Amino acid sequence: CSTALMAVANAVAWLRAGMARRFLAGGTEAPLTDFTIAQMKAIGIYSSIHDDPFPCQPYGTSMQNTFVLGEGAAVFALEKAHGGTLNSGDAVIEAIGFGFEKIESKTGISAEGINFQQSMRHALSQLDPADNKIDVIITHSPGTKAGDRAELTAVQSVFSADLPVITTNKWLLGHTLGASGALSLQYGLHLLREKLIPALPYQNRLVSGSPASFRRVMINAAGFGGNAASVVITLMDSY
Fold first, then answer.
1. From CA 216, how far away is CA 192, in angstroms rounded?
2. What pLDDT was estimated at residue 106?
3. Cβ within 8 Å of residue 31, ≥6 positions away
4. Phi, psi at residue 138, to the nearest 5°?
5. Rounded to 10 degrees, what is the CA torsion of 192, 198, 202, 208?
6. What is the separation, in whole angstroms, between the first and last Cα of the chain?
7. CA triple 48-51-54, angle to 5 deg
8. How far, in Å, CA of 22 to CA of 139, rounded?
9. What does the alpha-carbon distance between residue 65 and residue 146 come to, in Å, rounded to a whole number?
10. pLDDT tens, 148-182?
11. Cα separations (Å) of 234 from 219, 237, 238?
12. Are the C-beta atoms of residues 186 and 231 closer than 8 Å to each other?
């Protein structure tokens, strides 16, 4: 489920190394099959609130798993550019962080979200310490009790009192697995341009509203085997 952000990270590595001038990176997934849905139901995470307009409810107050599968694709055209050649409104990838933790199962996550803590701290370490404020985090948050709680714990551990506004797009899309990171990255660009965060349309545990400053967005994604990635983006006119 972190595939798309790993693809973006690979593209950035090629561009920084001078091995490419332009790079296409993204992710796609089409998991809506009887077999895949049966798998998710068998492990007890699939949403049972089918009659709700939004059956996927990350950070919801229902205290149940509300994981829902979705399908989608997104691809980004990336290039290496000097600051003087960028125009107002151009999107910039400022940092990419990675995290890994040893877990008991391939789909598990520690209660502390150690992989997320590592990836977020790694990304933050690449920013100027005097100017490293994250205004919004788009979390991975698949709608599972354990996963959502662990990521929220990780965010609170990393940012403490300077907590960014937290949001997600999975209530709109469900979990698109390999495409999810790319679709979250697209959502981050949308939020930066609109300067507005839609309120989640169900009872939830997040503090709603848009940040006073809206310069920088962090996108999280986690995948099987304990890996996580965090990408930090901004727009040129946000500087």
1. 8
2. 58
3. 69, 71, 176, 177
4. -95, 110
5. 80
6. 31
7. 85
8. 28
9. 9
10. 999 999 999 999 989 999 999 999 999 999 999 99
11. 11, 9, 7
12. no
Tell if the pTM clears 0.85, that is, is over it: yes
Q: Among the listed ranges 10-24, 75-89, 105-119, 145-159, which one has the minimum average pLDDT value? A: 105-119
Q: 198: Cβ–Cβ under 8 A, 6 or more apart, which residues?
A: 167
Q: Please name the residue that has the structure tokens 């990838």.
A: 93
Instruction: Please report where in the chains the tokens 């040129």 appear, as a residue.
Output: 236
Radius of gyration of the CA atoms of the chain, in A:
17
DSSP class per residue in 114-134: HHHHHHHHHHHTTS-TTS---
For the four alpha carbons of 40, 42, 47 and 51, in that order, the dihedral sign comes to positive
Report DSSP letters for 52-89, one per residue. Answer: SS----TTBSS-S--B-B--EEEEEEEE---GGG--TT
Q: Which residue has the tokens 């609170």?
A: 156
Q: How many CA atoms lie within 13 A of 217 on its CB side?
A: 28
